[in-house]
Amino acid sequence: MGSPKENLVIYNSLSRQKENFQPLHGAFVGLYVCGPTVYNFVHLGNCRTFISFDLVYRYLKHLGFKVRYVRNITDAGHLENDAEEGEDKIAKKARLEQLEPMEIVQQYTVDFHNTLTKFNNIPPSIEPTATGHILEQIEMIQKIIAKGMAYEVNGSVYFDVQKYNSEEEYGELSGRKIEDLVAGTRDLDGQEEKRSSLDFALWKNAKPEHIMKWTSPWGVGFPGWHLECSAMSTKYLGEQFDIHGGGMDLKFPHHECEIAQGKAATGLKPVRYWMHANMLTLNGKKMSKSTGNTLLPAELFSGENDLLEKAYDPIVVRFFMMQAHYRSTLDFSSDALNASEKGFFRLMEGLKLAQEMPVSSVSSVNVNELISQFYGAMNDDFNSPILIAHLFDAVKIVHAVLSKNETITQNDKELLLKELNAFIFDVLGLKELTSEGDKSLEIVMELVLQMRQNARETKDWTTSDAIRDKLAEAGIVVKDGKEGATWGKG
Ligand code: AMP
Ligand code: ZN
User: Fold this and answer.
1) Which of 31, 39, 49 to probe ligand 1 with, by most ligand atoms within 8 A of CB?
2) Statement: residue 187 has pLDDT above 60
3) How far is residue 35's CA from residue 48's CA, in Å, rounded to a whole number?
């Protein structure tokens, strides 16, 4: 059997199968996850991916691995529409808002951190930025040029995909064949510097109006988007490391290019296990900033969006996400969130009741088997919905013991409590919602909303609006719905 640590199985997107996880360096695990491009508020879809990898990080740590978790901040080089031409997303936003690019980066990095903290994500061990690693990126380009896999034209450097493909396999991660890729792309069309339309930029020559630029052996320019992740993962995790994650939409071209860059520079496959988190959808379509099909975390926490019936606590939203496997798509809806909210409170109530279970001299329930089911679920490619189903089995047992239909010994009770706490708080990253302070706030808010309702019934709109505005000043958003007013923290 072995310990749970030896039985972890991960679905590797590269081999398209589940594989037993064997880290390169014993108990040490290197984990790299592509971070956000900080030119806008993160939407709930982005958060899903980061929460999925928070689960991975938490479970690896729970198993006893010493994890170095690196997640970058893309603060330069990501061009519009992920294209090879166009404006840098951050520079564009800076131009439109008449701010310094670094002001944009700062604002949205802070928002990103605050948002993930609300979801109870653990910060990564290292959070490197693209602009802080220009030298490493230049060095990597030099290595790739020295291997004959990249060429310079007019101050830009391009990765030679055809040349690489003559020795290696370009497209192995996404399952694309180079012939199909060539057939599927338009002519070079404005990108005449490239030998082939598949080639991608490692370094781009900066036009005079470009604001984010650095000197390099090829002149003044800026790095290509795919390069930063290769350079930073190599610097902090080595030329070959254990796990690389990101959203499914990054598989091609971003991750395909990362493999090509790493292999061209060092001769080694950079990553052992590729993990891809699936998309959060809204109305059945991918949540995406560019199409406007989004929901912002702040809207969810305040309830201020027509799609929402009320405000939701970030931890309830996290639980909702944990109820789907990270490789399945998850469709967002108020109904689904309401169901998750009920489930969440049922689970937390069960945990509280577990402490009150009377103990007996024998156990009629099999606690060890239940616990091995917790591990079995998470060891099967981090299957959090199955884990949650087993946690609810535990809640059933708690109720059965309380109603004297089953018995449990002191030792078994302690063991069950320890593991329930570990899986609910450490692994799933959930939290108790109502602290004492929040409880009093709930009572006060119930009273205030009732007073406001009385004012509305007598058409005293001045008082009703004054209450709403005063609460808004205090960061509390009141929302009027069909079934009366609800509130949330904005
Ligand atoms: P970006 O800032 O656009 O590079 O995206 C940050 C992360 O969010 C990437 O890993 C994306 O794959 C991921 N992502 C973007 N849209 C969604 C979505 N609708 N659901 C889940 N993850 C997403
Ligand atoms: Zn990346």
Assistant:
1) 49
2) no
3) 12
For the record, the structure tokens of 365 come out as: 């329930």
pLDDT over threshold 90, residue 277: yes
Least confident of 162-176, 194-208, 444-458, 469-483: 469-483
Ligand 1 binding pocket (C-beta < 6 A) is 34, 36-37, 45-46, 48-49, 246-247, 249-250, 279-280, 286-288
Is the separation of the CB atoms in 86 and 74 below 8 Å?
A: no
User: Average pLDDT, whole number, for the chain?
Assistant: 93
| Proximal ligand: closest to the CA of 232 | 2
15-70 pLDDT, tens per residue? Answer: 999 999 999 999 999 999 999 999 999 999 999 999 999 999 999 999 999 999 99
Residue 368: strand, helix, or coil: helix
488 vs 304: which has the higher pLDDT: 304
% residues pLDDT > 90 (the chain) = 80
Which H or E element spans position 250?
none
Which one is predicted more confidently, 185 or 351? 351
Are 84 and 191 in contact by the 8 Å Cβ rule? The answer is: yes
What is the spatial order of strands in the sheet that 330-332 belongs to? Answer: 285-286, 280-282, 330-332
Task: Please report the beta strands in 167-260, taking only residues with DSSP state E, as ranges in sequence order.
Answer: 200-205, 214-216, 219-223, 241-247
**Pocket-testing residue among 46, 320, 321, ligand 1, by greatest number of atoms within 8 A of Cβ:** 46
**pLDDT greater than 90 at residue 271:** yes
CA distance 25 to 243: 12
Rounded to the nearest angstrom, the distance between the alpha carbon of 120 and the centre of ligand 2 is 23
**Amino acid letter for position 70:** V
CA trace torsion 379, 20, 251, 44 (10° rounding): 10
b/e for 271-295, b at 16 or more Cβ within 10 A? bbbbbbbbbbbbeeebbbbeeebbb
Q: Whole-angstrom Cα distance, residue 200 to residue 160?
A: 8
CA distance 245 to 251: 9
Q: Which ligand is nearest to the CA of 251?
A: 1
pTM, two decimal places: 0.90
Ligand 1, atom nearest to 289 Cα: 16
pLDDT at 154: 96
The residue whose CA is least distant from atom 9 of ligand 1 is 247
User: Is residue 77 within 8 Å of 228, Cβ to Cβ?
Assistant: yes
pLDDT, mean of residues 448-472: 91
How many Cβ atoms sit within 10 Å of the Cβ of residue 317? Answer: 24
Enumerate helices (H) and strands (E) in the chain, giving the number of each: 16, 16
